[in-house]
Amino acid sequence: MHVLVARVGPHNAVVVSQNTLMALTKTSRRTVQRALTVLVEDRWIEVRQVGQNGTVNAYIINDRVAWTGKRDGIRYSLFSASVVVSDEEQPDRDQIGYQEPLRRVPSIGRGEQQLPTGPGLPPPSEPSFPSMEHDLPATHDPRYDGDEHDR
Fold it and tell me: Domains in the chain, please, with CATH?
């Protein structure tokens, strides 16, 4: 329980494999499985399976998972969790720490608008639906107050 609680952070849940729990507790798989069974039976944790074979799970501590209604025939649970992975389980283990940095997703601050720049993309293959034209920011140029053909 202490190994899980130490890693949940503010989320009340942690996702971790049994192999990583074995390494963290320095015990066998059977010991980890018995400990998890006791914690579930005594209602300390709730377990939600992440992978197909049940060796990677989300362990929810002191919090009931909220299941949403059926959508497309699937009921699902949405919660946040700390995820603990071990380099022992990674196929690119020898590359960890030497990879190229990830690209940063550009973000727009509150009140800012995205302005189109650059050559752009070719026009779409279909025209916009009437009254559904794109709403792009524009400036008013008084030189073109005349006929529509001047614009």
Answer: 2-83 (1.10.10)
